[in-house]
Amino acid sequence: MNEKSTQERLRLYLIRHGEVEGAASGKLLGRTDTPLSDQGLEQARQLAEVLSTAQLSAIYCSDLQRARTTAEIIAKRSNLNVQESSAWREIDMGEWEGDTLAALHDEAPELIAQLFSDPASFEYPDGESFTGFTTRVQRALDQLLITHRTGEVALVAHGGVCRTIIGNVLGMPTHNWLRLAQVYACMNVIEWYGANPILVMLNSHNGPPTKSAACGDAQSLRTSQLMIEFA
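-> structure tokens emitted (231 positions)
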């Protein structure tokens, strides 16, 4: 990695929206447009405070209100306009929307087993396929990376979107993506140095890292031997 690519760093704050109304019920929410709970609104305000020191140049979000409201609260503190898109929506769970995994395990155990063991081939009944979902998210991310080659950008989305981006960055097999915890209002930080992404922070409620992953003498950096800080 040369000095030029070290200087051309993009930092992405990848954020899951705050808690939604009825979260305790454990119902599946994909396309369902559920609002934030009071706790979720407070979590969004805390995120805005945490990100107030970040040098954000843009804030993107899903157009579903739980993500959009979270992003708008962050944007107001940062004096930015939110750029929303349906491309960042959670996967459409079709007939399973509003059901719980426990209930679905009794009704369709084979499909639940497939969802966890072979998600790449899975399609929600009357909903979106896993392949279609991940392709949609990756295309949106590719466009974001073209638009922003340097600087700091926030993206407020959903658990599935966050896992897709992180899983691809880490080169994880899809059947392991659900092992990535993504709690409400968590923050992940990914830095791109050219085409080389580095996961700097995962599923955190702490503030953003104070240093880049690639800090120090640029000539000493190697793609396979980067020192990474976790906050």
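The longest strand covers residues 196-204.
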